[in-house]
């Protein structure tokens, strides 16, 4: 049986119910900019590698962000990952090739 992609998991009713509860808790406004008139996203503050899906989190670890703030948050996360790779490579802990292989495995859910 094929494993569902993350995009497919976002359509799961368990996630849809949880994200609506997050929006309601946050007053239907962005946690960062406080705007109410933008498209809202439920953002996981931290990710757990062994979670069954996006619904498999405590509601307190998810916040409401507008689409602009959500994109900014992920750009910051990508920059932090890149900086970590550079720092570990410079210290000689790993090579850039090691991270390329690791990143490929993550992007394909562990399937080469």
Q: How far apart, in Å, are the first and last alpha carbons? A: 17 Å
Q: How many strands, what sense, and barrel or not for the largest sheet? A: 2 strands, antiparallel
With helices defined by DSSP (H or I, 4 residues minimum), what is the helix count? Answer: 4
- What's the alpha carbon Rg, rounded to whole Å? 17 Å
* Mean pLDDT, all residues: 82
Strand order of the largest sheet: 1-2
Oligomeric assembly:
single chain
How do the SSEs run, as a string of H and E?
Answer: HHEEHH
Which shape, going by the Cα principal axes?
globular
Helix content: 40-55%
Instruction: Briefly note the structural class of the backbone.
Output: mainly alpha
Uncertain stretches of 5 or more adjacent residues: 105-112
Number of domains: 1
Features:
47% helix; two-stranded antiparallel ribbon; single chain; 4 helices; 112 residues; mainly alpha; 2 strands
């Amino acid at each position: 049986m094929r494993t569902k992609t993350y995009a497919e998991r976002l359509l799961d009713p368990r996630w849809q119910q949880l994200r609506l509860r997050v929006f309601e808790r946050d007053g239907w406004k962005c946690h960062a900019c406080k705007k109410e008139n933008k498209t809202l996203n439920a953002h996981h503050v931290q990710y757990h590698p062994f979670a069954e899906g996006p619904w498999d989190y405590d509601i307190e670890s998810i916040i409401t962000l507008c689409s602009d703030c959500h994109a900014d948050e992920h750009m910051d996360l990508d920059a932090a990952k890149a900086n970590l790779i550079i720092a570990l490579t410079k210290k000689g802990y790993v090579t850039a090739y090691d991270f390329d292989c690791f990143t490929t495995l993550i992007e394909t859910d562990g399937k080469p």
